[in-house]
Every structure is written in structure tokens, then in C-alpha cells.
Amino acid sequence: MSPNFLQLRHLRYFLGIVDAGSFTGAAGMLHVAQPALSQQMAALEAELGVELLQRSQRGIRPTAAGEIFYREAASIIGQVEQLDRVVRSAAGEPEGLVRLGMSSGFAVCWACDFMEACRMILPKVHLRLVAGDIVRMRSLIASRALDLCFLLEDEPIQGLSRQPLFHQPLSLVGPVFAEDVTHTISLERLAHLPLVLPTRPNTVRSALDRALQEVGLTPNCIAEVDTFASALSLVNAGIGNVIVPKIVFSDMPGHGRLRLISIDPPIHVTACLISSGNTPLPFAAQAVGDLLTTHVKLALRKDSKKKEG
After folding, report:
1. Among 61, 76, 162, 289, which residue's Cβ finds the most Cβ atoms within 10 Å?
2. What is the pLDDT of residues 170-212, one digit of tens each?
3. Which residues pair with 61 in a beta bridge?
4. Looking at domain 8-90, which of 1.10.10.10, 2.30.30.180, 3.40.50.620, 3.40.50.10490 is its CATH number?
């Protein structure tokens, strides 16, 4: 490709077409004549040597290559639009858009409080929160669609920067019953309980599967769910139990109706703050990461005081 061929307007045009789902809609949104827009996209595809858009009577959709191009184009445009705020931010108060990813479990328990803390402490930062599974978070970080990600991690991910925030045992959480007086549960008994587990791949699921496999057991999985909120609704309905890091329990919505039981021997997981290892974080993203680290430390301290009490 000619180094001078690809310009920002090509990226904006492509994003507009995909978002609108048609050349006609994009032309109106971008204030560009439709024939000119079609010509620009045809030239772009010819220069790249790959088809980016799939045209049909139902509209325009990106091809597989177009999906990749869309992610990269959106990241580039986002960085350009933030450039002036990043420069001003580096010279003073953190400012600009910060895209933060969280695993669904952390999002259910901490997202509201953290976003409120961010609004009060970093008023010029616009926080955009994305919740999802580890596969999606890794992909978004790698494609620079996220600045930071807070999730449970099994092992370091190549090409990504990793800051461990806490290392904790998993616990069993389920409905309260009168006969429940134990504070610990063995792997043998755990394997027979009805469990609502996250779909694979998932760090909690992997850690549980490994621990049970080592003693020749398999979990009694009665349901698999993609989000922690879905799992929690089944647990609150008395259908099954869920496995979570101990710290999550104290901030779990409606946890007064649930019980927490430690697993013996313990199964540990590590929560990390993940970012791209290829580019330094913008000043505003560093500030959000520092605030999240403080927020987690306060939650750990609160949990520790509850245990002492």
C-alpha cells in the first residue's frame, strides 16, 4: 500500500458505513455524496487487495477482514480524537476517555461504586466500562479497544502488561439452609453439590476443574452461564451454588440471603490489572488504574476487618 494512500477520512468513512449498515445512511451521517463514498471504499479495497464490505439487498456488513479493519480503525480514530485531551491531561489534571474492562463478576459487585468514585475523584475523566469474559477482554486489550482490564487470570498473557492486585482462595456461595453449620467443605462434597458454573474458557472454571481432576472428581454442573449476574439470579432462586473469590462475597448484591463456605484444600486465583505491553498508558488511564488499585485495597481491608470482627 502506498504510505500516503490511507488517510483518516478513509477510516471515518469505513466506520460510518459499517455503523449505518448502508452507503445511503452513511452518506447522510458523514455529509458525503453517496457516489463519492462508494468510490472511496472501492479504492480502499483495491489498494488493500481484500474485500472489507459484504454488500447485499439487506444492507452492508463487514467481512472477516472488515471486522479486523473496523477494530483497528476505531482504535486509531479514538486515539486521534483524544490526542488534544491527552496532551492537556499530561500537563495537569487527568482528562479524557478511559476504556476499562471488567470480568462480569467484578462488574456486578464493584462497577457502580468504582464509577462513582471515579466521577468524584477524576471529574475530567470519562470512564467507559465494558464487562465480559476473559476471551473478549484479552481480544479488546490486544486490539487496543480497551486501555485497562480488571480480571481473574490463570497465567501471564504474552504481549500484555500484568499487575497482580490480589491472590485469594475461591469459596462456595449458595442459599442459606437451617442445616448448614459448617464453614468449610471438602472437594469430595463440593463435587456432589449442584453448581452454576461459568462457560469455558474461564479462570474460575479452569481452577476448579484442575483441583477436582487432581483427586479424580468432576463438578456437578447443573447450568453454565456467560455472566455472573445470570449465575447470581439462579443462586438467589435456590437452584444451585456458585464459586467465587472470597472478596467478592462481601460486595455481592443480596448476599444476606446467601452463605459463604471455604473450600478445603483451598483453590487460589489471582486478580490482575491488564494493559497493553506494547504502548505506555495515557496519563488518564494511569490515574484510573491507580484509583482502581486503591479501591481494591480498601475492599480487601474491609473484608479483613469483617473477618477479624
Report:
1. 289
2. 999 988 654 555 688 999 999 999 999 998 888 899 999 999 9
3. 54
4. 1.10.10.10
